[in-house]
Design goal:
The protein has 246 residues and is of the alpha/beta class. The protein has one domain (11-184, 212-239): Rossmann fold, CATH 3.40.50. The protein is 44% helix and 15% strand. The protein has helices at residues 20-31, 43-52, 66-76, 99-127, 149-169, 187-192, 196-203, 214-225, and strands spanning 11-15, 35-40, 57-60, 81-84, 131-136, 174-181, 236-239. The chain has a 7-stranded parallel beta sheet, sandwiched between helices. Helix 1 links the parallel strand 1 (11-15) and strand 2. Pfam families: adh_short_C2. Keywords: NADP, Oxidoreductase. Homotetramer. One of its GO terms (molecular function) is carbonyl reductase (NADPH) activity.
Length: 246
Amino acid sequence: MEPHLSFRGRRALVTGAGKGIGRAVAVALSGAGARVTALSRTAADLESLARECPGIETLCLDLADWEAVEAAVGAAGPFELLVNNAAVAELQPFLEVTRSALQRSLDVNFGAVLHVSQIVARQMIAEGVPGAIVNVSSQASKRALRDHAVYCSTKSALDMLSKVMAMELGPHKIRVNTVNPTVVMTDMGRINWSDPQKSAAMIDRIPLGKFAEVDDVVNSILFLLSDKSAMTTGSSLMIDGGFLVS
């Protein structure tokens, strides 16, 4: 993707940057001039990212490890831009939801966003610089999906957390928004939704008749990070092809 916005000289942290959307955001931000730190729990993914884009710095961390995150992210900053992309999807029928699946989802999809954002926002405030935070949510925060009880719930919680963050951080010139994609054609998305019988039921509910590509999400994130959206905070940008209007 060719960068249309400049982030030259700005420092950015992207979580879940080893694969998919997070990796593409990290590469796009670096290409647009930002100094990017990419965070993932998978060392091999970070090593391949560093080879692909040598200017990117890497952090190998499990976001559920509160103390390790506090130390490592605090030392790596300060940042002006933050993309909270890391997430897990523990898909189980409601009656079969396990405690471990619930706890892992809460730790990563909600708790880690809160924690990393606290660390980064405190640094922004201490430095006296404006900033922007984009939290990657989902259309599943707005619409119930079978076997997604925990995922839908944690993404709904993330949307509300983002609104409260926007309210409290706004006076410090820190904007907070979410992007809420439909199914995205990452490598994993193509594997999970390659069965036409499975995908047809979802696509039939999308007026544009297709799933999102990675660049659809990346472009929206870059817009919300940029000064082009200087008056936008506390919003959810739906990248769903009209799924929620059908």
